[in-house]
Design a protein that fits this description.
The chain is an alpha/beta fold. It is built from 24 helices and 16 strands. The chain has a domain of about 140 residues: Malic enzyme, N-terminal domain (Rossmann fold, 3-Layer(aba) Sandwich). The strands form four sheets. The protein has a seven-stranded mixed sheet, sandwiched between helices. A five-stranded parallel sheet has the order 2-4-3-5-6, with helices on both faces. Strands 1-16 form a two-stranded parallel sheet. Strand 8 and strand 9 form a beta hairpin. Pfam families: malic, Malic_M. Keywords: Metal-binding, NAD, Oxidoreductase. InterPro entries: Aminoacid_DH-like_N_sf (IPR046346), Malic_N_dom (IPR012301), Malic_N_dom_sf (IPR037062), Malic_NAD-bd (IPR012302), Malic_OxRdtase (IPR001891), NAD(P)-bd_dom_sf (IPR036291). It catalyses: (S)-malate + NAD(+) = pyruvate + CO2 + NADH; oxaloacetate + H(+) = pyruvate + CO2.
Length: about 575
């Protein structure tokens, strides 16, 4: 990147990097290590002569060797372990290699393979990374966080998990630290958040995974999962200590259990900048796809009638984002907007008579029982006939739930039915894209929760959008960090989704995908971050001084502060 008028900023990625280490300490530090690429002058300057083979390689040669080593691993878990080891040795090479093979490696460094690595965390354990806080030692929280970084301003994003609901594989206890690490990798990879300005944390509250409790190699707190007041006090102690130590950091809650995720988010979101990807990220990326689909269908978001099939953390999170968008676009109250969304869970349509059975997130979507006396609230087909929705979204994990008859019924009432089977993994999808196109005579507008190959329909190749949270949450985090947002508000999230939807290929070609490809994620993140920064300013949430007023300057200001995977000259200090 050429010189910029913003090159003076503390996070600006330019010039030499100060290095206080010499000799083997340089090679053992993944942030400074360049391995065989170290030039002769730096080998002399930093006492590396004799510690490396004679030949200086190019970056391309180093990348080729690393990729060959990666390909030699016969299993995806083996490849995941190789990449984790590479990250421990050479941070820049690790990110360069992923960026060069992003689509191939994404499922290995994240879902689904990361789930296997997490399930085997204690058996694969080599080098500890992150901060481990245990519920039976709450008095150690502040000291543990204090020793994790030199200065309070050194951390921009904290990702924290209690390991209860990991990537669809459930309670993984202390192994949850790997999901915190993986999310921070995505922040760096997708939005240029500086990797040395992040902090992964696990709240080890025990585990109800009996297999782990019976495993003599399990590294976590060998105790059934602690709940209730003790749990809440532990989470509160962490949040307060983290906010005290790192007052400008965004706290990202990840993979908390269904009974805690929304409750914790609601408690702390009015107090500090925090975010939950399972709730808000899933909601944002799905709303972006819905927004693009509504544009193609010639509908206003404010007029949409929606059915949410599956009302867990993801389902209610998506419903909340759609309700926020309806409210902001129409001027309706949040409660009025929620009346346009019918949520269905295992017991059927959520009804007011079920209030004692519903969690906090579900209660605001409970329908009046009298409205359902004429039809069966437990039948999704009856709901479709009754509501005549424009949008049907599945987060139920019930494979095949969107049957041919149900889809054809919806297509009677909607010219371009918007149907999103989002349950993961692929085997749990509510319907297959090929069937949706066949059952709607090619009229469906669809997005899925996993990658699918294009579908042939009506003599055309139709791209299938993947609702991949990685296209949205990194940009939201980047915008919150760079603006030093006091809070992450609903309006900021809606603006983020608009920025993502604006880049949908379907806006130029109605047969194209409803969301942009993850391959273009860094530029997507710039647009999202800019939208978040502008909204933070509008709401008085931005604390950062000197934010450019011109939109072109704002994007340059953002790009200059994004970390890039490239070797910088080292300056001895």
């Amino acid at each position: 990147m050429s010189a910029s008028k913003f090159s003076h900023l503390p996070r600006a990625f330019n010039g030499a990097r100060e290095c206080p280490l010499i000799g083997t300490a340089v090679l053992e530090n993944p942030r400074f290590n360049k391995g065989s690429v170290f030039p002769d002058d730096e080998r002399r300057e930093f006492g590396l002569r004799g510690l490396l083979p004679r030949r200086v390689q190019t970056v391309e040669q180093q990348l080729d060797r690393a990729y060959r080593q990666y390909k030699e691993r016969s299993t995806d878990v083996g490849k995941n372990t190789f990449m984790a080891s590479l990250k421990d040795q050479n941070e820049v090479l690790y990110f360069m290699l992923i960026q060069q093979h992003l689509k191939e490696m994404f499922p290995v460094i994240y879902t689904p393979t990361e789930g296997d690595a997490i399930a085997n965390y204690s058996r694969l354990f080599r080098t500890p990374e992150g901060t481990f806080l245990t519920i039976d030692k709450p008095d150690e929280i502040q000291a543990s966080l204090d020793q994790s970084s030199a200065k309070p301003e050194d951390v921009d994003i904290i990702v924290v998990s209690d390991g209860e609901q990991i990537l669809g594989i459930g309670d993984q206890g202390v192994g949850g630290v790997l999901i915190s690490i993986a999310k921070l990798v995505l922040y760096t990879l997708c939005a240029g958040v500086h990797p040395n300005r992040t902090l992964p944390v696990v709240l080890d509250c025990g585990t109800n995974n009996q297999e782990l409790l019976n495993d003599e190699h399990y590294l976590g707190y060998p105790h059934p999962r602690v709940r209730g007041e003790t749990y809440d006090s532990f989470v509160e102690a962490f949040v307060e200590a983290a906010h005290k130590r790192f007052p400008n950091a965004l706290v990202h809650f990840e993979d908390f259990g269904v009974h805690n995720a929304r409750r914790i988010l609601d408690k702390y979101s009015p107090k500090l900048a925090c975010f939950n990807d399972d709730v808000q990220g899933t909601g944002c990326v799905t709303l972006a796809a819905v927004t693009a689909a509504a544009h193609v269908a010639g509908l206003k978001v404010s007029d949409l009638r929606c059915v949410m099939y599956g009302a867990g953390s993801a389902g209610t999170g998506i419903a909340d984002q759609i309700a926020d968008a309806i409210s902001l676009e129409s001027g309706k109250s949040k409660d009025e907007a929620k009346r346009q969304i019918v949520c269905i869970d295992k017991q059927g349509v959520l009804l007011q008579s079920m209030r004692d059975e519903l969690n906090d997130a579900q209660q605001s979507y409970a329908q009046a029982d009298d409205d359902w006396k004429a039809s069966d609230p437990k039948s999704l087909l009856e709901v479709i006939k009754n509501i005549k929705p424009h949008v049907l979204i599945g987060t139920s994990t019930q494979p095949g739930a969107f049957t041919q008859g149900l889809v054809r019924e919806m297509a009677k009432h909607a010219d371009r039915p918007i149907i999103f089977p989002l349950s993961n993994p692929t085997r749990l999808h509510e319907a297959q894209p090929q069937d949706l196109f066949a059952w709607t005579d090619g009229r469906v507008l669809t997005a899925t929760g996993s990658p699918f190959d294009p579908v042939e329909s009506g003599g055309k190749k139709r791209e299938i959008a993947e609702c991949n949270n990685s296209t949205v949450f990194p940009g939201i985090g980047l915008g919150a960090v760079l603006s030093r947002a006091r809070l992450v508000t609903s309006a900021m999230l809606v603006e983020a989704t608009k920025a993502l939807a604006a880049q949908a290929p379907a806006l130029q070609d109605p047969d194209a995908a409803l969301l942009p490809d993850v391959q273009d994620v860094r530029e997507i993140s710039v647009k999202i971050a800019a939208a978040v920064v502008r909204q933070a300013e509008k709401e008085g949430m931005a604390r950062q001084e000197g934010i450019p007023k011109n939109d072109g300057d704002l994007e340059e200001w953002i790009r200059v502060q994004m970390w890039r995977a490239e070797y910088r000259p080292l300056k001895k200090v």
